Sequence to fold (141 residues):
Amino acid sequence: MIDEAKRSPAPRILLGEDDLEMRALLAEALRSKGYTVVECADGMNVLQQLSYVILSPEVSARDPEHYDLVVSDIRMPGVTGLSILEGVQLFEGFPPMILITAFGDEETHAAAKRLGAAAMFDKPFDLDDLLRKVEELAPVA
Fold:
């Protein structure tokens, strides 16, 4: 029997996606792999969720506000995924970020790479490919 106090918590993923059906699909797929998922419907909500991390760089992996990974659509109401990535890249301890988009031209891919995106997926993408990348960046114990 595993001692619950010693079990590491499930990795937390912040999911930003304005399309309800896509968000539900991604959240369910991530939860089925053992992740804790916090869902956001727009860029402002993603920023609100990340504000604690940004303002408190001492946040540890045991802190309930900690995120191990951010998965975000690029085009969302309020603030884009690229803008979020650009704004937070200066903060120490910021989790890796995977961007997804239906508008993945060469310029967008170049900007995502330049800003430090861990990966970028063009819609429609293979869900298994995304899940493999998530597991690589935030392995489930």
